[in-house]
Amino acid sequence: MEVTAREAREGDLDVVEALLDAAAADVGTMRGGDVWLLTHPRPSAVRASLQADLAAGDRTLVVGTIDEVVVGYGEAAVAERPGDGTVATVTGLWVLPDARDVGVAEAVMDVLLEWSHGHGAIAIESSVLPGNRAGKNFFERYGLVARAITVRRRLDGADS
């Protein structure tokens, strides 16, 4: 079994679209996931947004593979922050459940780190939903630590 990751290509976009749908469904089941999906919507023209990611200099789309079959993805963007410098943000990283625990996410993260460094980033960050211990532990293995925790309470009596 060969686990690798690489920058995505046009021919990967059908699979990446399906992975984005599966990731959104997964996130929607997590605590805070419903709010995350509302506040971080994917553009309605998903294919066009993915094609723009492939062409943009400040964003990247990476696929993780097992024996050359795409089973995961990662996305990152770099931006200048006043007083902070260039910061890379991992905006998505997800692997099919049956393909987890064999190093796919690690391979994707390694490519994202290399890309970020190559684009002059002085730091890399991401977000993890509350209760996603595996996600938190994953990023901590890469030296990412919590800098802030967002807290929320609904005022209309509904859950979350």
- Estimate the strand proportion: 25-35%
Any idea what the shape is?
A: globular
**Average residue-wise pLDDT:** 93
Alpha carbon gyration radius: 16 Å
Low-pLDDT stretches are none
Helical percentage: 25-40%
Annotation field: number of helices: 5
Order of helices and strands: EHHHEEEHEH
Task: Please provide the count of β strands.
Answer: 5
Distance separating the two termini: 41 Å
Write out the strand line-up for the largest beta sheet, numbering strands in chain order.
1-2-3-4-5
* Helix and strand composition category: alpha+beta
The major beta sheet can be summarized as:
5 strands, mixed
Commentary on this structure:
This protein has 160 residues and is α+β, with helices and mostly antiparallel strands. Helix content is 36%, strand content 25%. The chain contains 5 helices and 5 strands; from the N terminus they run βαααβββαβα. Helix 1 packs across helix 2. The longest helix has 16 residues, at 13-28. The termini are far apart.
Features:
single chain, five-stranded mixed β-sheet, 5 helices, 36% helix, 160 residues, alpha+beta
SSE layout and pairings?
Blueprint: E1 3-7, H1 13-28, H2 33-39, H3 46-55, E2 59-66, E3 69-81, E4 85-95, H4 104-118, E5 123-125, H5 133-141
Parallel strand pairs: 4-5
Antiparallel strand pairs: 1-2, 2-3, 3-4
Helix pairs in contact: 1-2
